[in-house]
Amino acid sequence: MSQNFNLAIENPCSENFNNFNSTEKGGFCNSCRKEVVNFTNMTDSQIIDYFKNSTKKTCGYFREEQLKNYASQITISQQKGKFWNASIMGFSLLSLLSFTNGLAQEDTSNMTTHKVQTDKKKVDNTTSNNQNLQELTSGVVYDESRIPLPGASITLKGSNIGVITNFDGEFTFPKPLEKETILIVSYLGYETKEVKILNSKKIVIKLDSPMAILMMGEVAVEKVYQSKPTFFQRIGNFFKK
After folding, report:
1. Cα Rg of the chain, angstroms
2. What pTM was estimated for this model as a whole?
3. Are 186 and 153 part of one and the same domain?
4. Torsion over CA: 102, 108, 110, 111 (sign)
5. Which residues of 21-53 are buried (b: 16+ CB within 10 A; e: fewer)?
6. Domain of 234, in residue numbers
7. pLDDT per residue over 93-152, tens digit each?
8. Is residue 144 domain-shared with residue 191, that is, in the same domain?
């Protein structure tokens, strides 16, 4: 059976979470005499882990976009595990073959190896000097809940030179930036922000979402069951991955 599930709040609560007494997991509601878990700062993986290990009813405080189907996140996690195991096996086999070939060629490659390593040191020194002269600005973009924003756009003001953040919200600008340079940072559904570059080469940018909707109430966890695939379906799914 699948571990996929949907999260929903069928009857939203009208209490103000900011007025609750703080607890380890969130806040305590005096009206219903319950602890309300604050999920707004959690990632999808943390939410999945929480409900996989929880067996009791939960009253939670969520961002609206967190109330959704978590099927895809679990599937991706499982696929990454299979890929990692296969990668380890492949790497081990490659290492064994490389070690065997290395023993056979060891006597004839010492001089060549020494020359290549010497040349590599020269290249590394040259690269290091260039980086010192033209250090690139890097940073990370996240939202008000400190969740990284992949695909955010960072553009040099008044130009079309820019970069997109990676899966972890990180970026490295493609050209050196002078002090007082202004970057335009934008992301769909968030307020566009202008950031002035000062002395730091590592910058942290927070974007605010004017459309953030917060919901609170008892969480309905609906599991999504799927029939077990046949042998031939598993073979077909393996090649699709």
Report:
1. 26
2. 0.43
3. yes
4. negative
5. eeeeebbebeeeeebbbbbbebebeebbeebee
6. 5-71+213-240
7. 444 445 455 544 555 444 444 444 545 455 455 444 444 436 889 999 998 878 899 999
8. yes
